[in-house]
Amino acid sequence: MTAEPPASAMPPPVVGIPCCLKQLDGHPFQAAGEKYVIAVSEGAGCTPFLIPSLPRPIAVETVLAHVHGLLITGSPSNVAPGLYGGPPPRDGVLQDPQRDATTLPLLRLALARGVPVLAICRGFQELNVVMGGSLFQHLEEEPGRLDHRGGPGAPAEVYRPKHMVALTPGGQLAAIAGGHEIMVNSIHGQGIDRLAPGLAVEAVAPDGTIEAVRVEGAKSFALATQWHPEWRYWEDPFATALFSAFGQAVRAHAAANPVPVSKVLHV
To answer: Furthest-apart CA pair in the chain: how many Å?
Structure first.
């Protein structure tokens, strides 16, 4: 029998990142923002593994047999409102049904199996939908709500810090931050309307908009933020600590639940 290599010699665990369907010059492409890939690789210390969102989605069991964690990204597209009982989207609002068909089942099974999950922006909204919540499709039109959209400009301007969020005392994010308030960016047109059962609020914007949640009683790390901590995460002590905590959870899950991963991933 071949002895198992020591933990120090084990390759980094693998984090799956579902792709969005993008149209470039009339051709469909599978795409994931480099900022997420770098945050997983360098911030969490894990191997990023892009999961295509295909017309016939890859079976979720197959995907989860090859990853130790999931990062569910943001996207310009919105979750299809029919998935949470909302009215049809307005003309011109970008949809991505292939992503919906990929990420929602992945989230369900990952949570059931205790696979660590970090969900961001659209991913935050997907988590709320998959657990039975609903969304505002145009948050800026709701009475008393701020306009949380990023607006035009260079990326550094779009992703600059916009407003404070109050972190829930005793919550997981407050523990990561070492305090009860942080400044975040804000680049979203949708937001949580009805909070899903089983989700606990981790952060709230000054206008009452829920900005972060965790899965109550989760078997592992299961957090979601409406803002974008992946953007230049190394410049923000909280974001750096968040990805470090996610990476630690992924490594712990990988150690307790080893999966066969192709050697190609670790060349």
So the answer is: 67
Selecting among 68, 148, 228, 253, the annotated active-site residue is 228
Question: pLDDT at position 152, please?
Answer: 84
The CATH number given to whatever domain includes residue 97 is 3.40.50.880
Catalytic pick among 121, 126, 148, 188: 121
> Tell me: the pLDDT tens digits for 147-201?
999 878 889 899 999 999 999 999 999 999 999 999 999 999 999 999 999 999 9
Cα within 13 Å of Cα(236), Cβ side: 22
The pTM (predicted TM-score) of the whole model is 0.93
| 180 assigned to active site | no
Distant-in-sequence, close-in-space partners of 140: CB < 8 Å, separation ≥ 6: 146, 147, 148, 149, 189
* C-alpha 44: how far from chain center: 13
Q: Would you say 250 and 47 are in contact if contact means Cβ atoms under 8 Å apart? A: no
Count the domains in the chain: 1
